[in-house]
UniProtKB/TrEMBL annotation:
It catalyses: guanosine(46) in tRNA + S-adenosyl-L-methionine = N(7)-methylguanosine(46) in tRNA + S-adenosyl-L-homocysteine. This is tRNA (guanine-N(7)-)-methyltransferase. InterPro entries: SAM-dependent_MTases_sf (IPR029063), tRNA_(Gua-N-7)_MeTrfase_Trmb (IPR003358), tRNA_methyltr_TrmB_bact (IPR055361). It is an enzyme of class 2 (transferase). Substrate binds at K158, D190, T224, K225, F226, E227. Its EC number is 2.1.1.33. The gene is trmB. S-adenosyl-L-methionine binds at E79, E104, D131, D154.
Length: 247
């Protein structure tokens, strides 16, 4: 995935500037159906995030209150990089007593999630078009999330791009911050080299316990486009999970 001019300049002057981000795609046109869903229901499902310098940043001082956002107190599952919302909407439909928040920088993906939410009449989902790093650092309250899910993060398979991967030692304290004690961090990838990295990262993650081995496939995840693509290419799908320890 080539670095774009926007990537290089986008974060200048942001007080929370990140030198390297885990994504490139933020724009893209919406289909007619996506635009229609956006116009119709975005105000109900998409968090209005005040920005810093960039379109995926979070203004200093902005936080969300999950109870206010969902209009109730319920367990909260956070999906980072929810893509087109396949897993998010599926999980929310099967578990109406839990709330689901998806963080996604790719606007057409969020719009497609709205298409699906509207079509299926699912209500217990909210979406934020935001980079997960500032969201985990500042937007979400500490110890507010019961489960963090990261399904098929961009693999950044070239070695010189590994620094762009989302699941690194640097993200551990951020996930730890938002998870409640006893909360679960679930990950999956079809890219063995990234799976090995995930296992290493959670294996040495301070404040987490893990089996040290691959987890069972999480049965609450449907086979999404990315998982199907990995299977079709003969790759092994790896699940990894870790438990946030009680202090
Ligand atoms: C390979 S796709 C997988 C999508 C989805 N999880 C699935 O399994 O179908 C990875 C997604 O993560 C998003 N992403 C990458 N870095 C992100 C970040 N820092 N914050 C939020 N989303 C991010 C990308 O835009 C992309 O949609």
């Amino acid at each position: 995935m080539p670095e774009t001019a926007e990537d290089r300049t986008d974060h200048d002057e942001d007080p929370f500037r990140r030198e390297v981000v885990s994504f490139t795609r933020r724009g893209g046109r919406l289909t007619e159906r996506q635009q229609d869903a956006w116009d119709d229901v975005a105000h109900r499902f998409v968090v209005d995030v005040p920005r810093g310098r960039t379109s995926t940043s979070v203004a200093d001082g902005f936080t969300i209150d999950p109870a206010e956002l969902f209009g109730r107190d319920a367990p909260l599952v956070l999906e980072i990089g929810s893509g087109r919302g396949e897993s998010l909407v599926h999980a929310a439909r099967l578990d109406p007593d839990t709330d689901f928040l998806g963080l996604e920088v790719y606007v057409p993906g969020v719009a497609q999630t709205l298409v699906q939410l509207r079509h299926e009449g699912v209500e217990n989902v909210r979406l934020a078009v935001v980079d997960a790093v500032p969201a985990l650092t500042r937007m979400l309250p500490a110890e507010s999330v019961d489960e963090v899910r990261v399904w098929f993060p961009d693999p950044w398979h070239k070695k010189r791009h590994h620094k762009r991967r989302l699941v690194t030692d640097e993200v551990v304290p951020l996930v730890h911050r938002v998870l409640k004690p006893g909360g679960v961090w679930r990950l999956a990838t079809d890219w063995q080299d990234y799976a090995d990295q995930m296992l290493e990262v959670v294996g040495r993650a301070e404040g987490f316990t893990t089996s040290g081995d691959w987890a069972e496939r999480f049965e609450g995840r449907p086979i999404t486009k990315f998982e199907a693509k990995g299977i079709a290419k003969g790759r092994t799908i790896r699940d990894v999970s870790a438990l946030r320890m009680t202090p």
